Amino acid sequence: MIFGRGKFAKGKKNYSAFSNYLYVAPALLMVLAFLIAPIIFVLYVSFTDWDLLHPMNFIGIKNYIKIFSDPNLLISIKNTLIWVVFILAIPMVLGLILAVFIKNVWFSDQIKSIFYIPLAMSGAGIGIIWYWIFSRTGFLNSILMFFGAIAAPKSWLLIIPQNTFAMIAAVTWQTTGLNMILFLMGLQNIPIEVLEAAKIDGSNEWHTFTKIILPLLKPITTIVIILNIIGSFKIFDIIWVMTAGGPARSSETLAVSMYKESFSLHRMGYGSSIAVILSLIIFIAGIGYLKIAAREK
Amino acid sequence: MKNFFTWLLICIFVLSFSFMLIGCKEEPAPETTTETTATEETAAETTAEETTTTEALTGPLKLFTDKPSWQTGWDAIFAGFKGKTGIDVEMTGYTEIDTYTAAVKTGIPTAEGPDVFTWWSNYKIADLAKEGLLEDLTSLYEPVKDKYNPGILDSFSYEGKVYGAPVLVASWLMFYNIPVFEKYGIKEPKTWDEFITICDTLKSKGVTPIGFTIGGGWTSFFWFQQIFASNYPDVYYAICRGEKSWNCDEVKKTFEIWKDMIEKGYFTDPGVDLGNDIPPMFAKGEVGMTYCGDWYTAFFDSVELKGGQDYSVFVMPSYLKDRPKTVIYEAGPMCISNNAKNKATAKAFIEYWLSDEGQTIWSESMNFVSANSSVPKDKLDSVKQKISADVFGDPNAELVVRFWEATLETITLPACASFDKFVLNPDSYEAVISELDQLSTKAWDEYKGK
Q: Residue B75 belongs to a domain with what CATH number?
């Protein structure tokens, strides 16, 4: 749409510009009130010792220094990195393998639907399902005891670090479908001529996959990697439902620590500083995603 | 034509924005007394005369609570209050504690927050009173002060003024499985040695003696609190008030007793769920006892266990032989925000709440032991009647405040994380004590600095 054309544009340029701004003003006001203002507020709070009850005192960068000396936060950072590594390794690789295998089968649409269903579910719902699987009276213990693998039920979600891997399994179940569909899109965009030329030249399946398909999938792979990095940094709901970061704060990630410090312990200043760090990481990853997506177009 | 549309859009925008601004303008609170029927007006006037204040009662009264599941009790008390004053009570219930505390703490500094709200005693109520956020309720107790235990009122006090009315006064006791006890010929223990013998007997019969969990992140303090406070109440209070280091013999002894119990296999797997797992295990006879606040009866109700028939309670004996009967208790208050929009109504509500009529309604509808000594106990179930007689009716029983309220809010939850570590690795107790000491020192330094 081109604004300010016609009589107003010719004779009253300034007025026309003003009316253009009026068109975007409602949306701008909303963005200012609900996005920009909270960001500025959180940024400001992160430099204070606000605890909801007492007045905010400016304490400089103390909260930011504390992040890297607080043993609970160091565990949280370590867990976040474990999440990033395993979410990149498991659901992404599984998604790629599934995409390659179902690309040419006649029932690929049905498979796609089945793997996509978990993505339509809420994180909290998935957390409850997987909590039940790993709980003391849950499915996993029943199966293991039935086959005699264990004599008594175990509380898997209290065992460190198995509890983190149990939650990674839950997220794998949820996100593999999306990765598979993204990789399928990438595979479908590979020109058939290239694959046929490789076949004529005597390339076997493995070589075609590693030397031709994978390099051609690089742009979509980068997008999948960035989406998974963003997802693993901001993961909260499944962890909160399954372990609430426990026991003894052992399974917290940065997002859970941010919530716990802010809303359980009411250290809003400290919680905000974690939020700022987390947002920066996700922002940088997001910029990377947008750049690659733009280059793709 | 285009110009016409441009101007039309501008007009729509300006009008919409104006309406938005008008819509955002704060409306004065409707004065219920002016909108009620003639009967309600008379009732309101009558109550206004009865209350200590002569201010007009306005409504509806806004109540926030973290206990929305007590709907039966709320409905009954709200109906009673409406019958007296003609004023409705609008309840906002929160099921998530963190959200609730944040909503109250950010709400009560303004008139937009709740008029009345449920809270926690001791340091938790003191935190709000210290900041001038609570209305002083001392004068409301004048007509009924002989009916309330001074110890309980102390839990709601800060600098000599009372800031809360009791919603819940729960004692922490050992629930035991009557069929299991009868099957193995076990009687309620009177001494620690008898208690340990019961645990050994149950263990030898394949029954887990005690249901216990660290699931949920807040329950691991139960046994620390019971052993420590019942044997060393003075040291317990001194540590909770930041007057003594955690690095002391009494704390060490407490952890050693607890460690011994864990190692002898007296407790269930700590991964069981307090509400979803222990009551069914109890019902199946897999667990012989469980220690909790007397509100735990609601969980037994959920698996259709009957008080007096399927389960009963006893006061946990102390490890030290010369200690009197000691019971941990928690008292949950109802407070008035100092910035309440309907403050006169809030005071009338608390006055009604404290009255014999209000407390009887609350006690009977919730099956709670009332803090008001005039309230009859005969409508309570047999377990609650036993609690009333054994705990509140025994002049020799020493009541000690629960750990959750006895110390700073900034200590309780992190301390539970330390207790979790101990439960998962009982050999780590010395490191856990050091961690608790550091946590306490830091929290008290911060508290005193504010």
A: 3.40.190.10
Kindly state whether residue B79 falls inside one of the protein's structural domains.
yes
DSSP letter at B391? Answer: I
Q: What is the ipTM of this complex?
A: 0.81
Contacts of A265 in chain B (CB under 8 A): 410, 413-414
Rounded average pLDDT per 10-residue block, chain A, 297 residues: 49 72 91 93 96 90 94 93 93 93 84 87 94 91 93 90 94 94 92 90 90 91 91 93 92 95 92 95 86 74
Q: What is the pLDDT of residues B408-425, one digit of tens each?
A: 989 999 999 999 999 999
User: Is the bond leading into A161 cis (omega within 30 degrees of zero)?
Assistant: yes
Q: Do A22 and B10 touch (CB under 8 A)?
A: yes
Contact criterion met (CB < 8 Å) for A135 and B271:
yes
Question: Are residues A158 and A39 located together in one domain of the fold?
Answer: no
User: Quick check: A160 and B425 in contact, CB under 8 A?
Assistant: no
Q: What tokens appear for B248 in the block?
A: 């002391």
Q: Is B435 on the interface with A (CB under 8 A)?
A: no
Contacts of A8 in chain B (CB under 8 A): 3, 6
Residue A242 located in a structural domain: yes
B286 and A CB contact within 8 Å: no
pLDDT reported for residue B6: 52
- Clarify whether residues A117 and A204 are in a common domain: yes
Instruction: Say whether B270 and A263 touch across the interface (CB within 8 A).
Output: no
Predicted model pTM: 0.83
What are B135-170's pLDDT values in tens digits? Answer: 999 999 999 988 998 888 999 999 999 999 999 999
| Count of residues in chain B | 450
Q: Which of A137, A248, A259 sits opposite B417 (nearest CB)?
A: A248
**Residue A250 resides in a domain:** yes
Cα separations in angstroms, B266 against A40, B290, B292, B430: 53, 11, 16, 22
Does B58 share its domain with B192?
no
Q: Look up the domain containing B259 and give its range.
A: 171-329+393-449
Check whether residue A19 and residue A146 sit in a common domain.
Answer: no
Contact status of A6 with chain B (Cβ, < 8 Å): yes
| A264 vs B389: CA distance, rounded Å | 37
Between positions 12 and 31 of A, the ones with CB within 8 A of B are 19, 22-23, 25-26
In chain A, the number of structural domains is 2
With CA atoms as reference, the chain A residue closest to B129 would be A53
Q: Which positions in chain B touch A158 (Cβ < 8 Å)?
A: 214-215, 270-271, 424
Distance CA A11, CA A246 (A): 68
CA distance B314 to chain A (A): 29
Q: Where are the alpha helices (DSSP H) in A12-138?
A: 13-31, 37-45, 62-67, 71-102, 108-116, 123-134
- Tally the domains of chain B: 2
Which among B3, B98, B423 has CB closest to A6?
B3
Low-confidence ranges of chain B (pLDDT < 70): 1-54, 450
Range of the domain at A202: 69-296
- Domain presence at residue B34: no
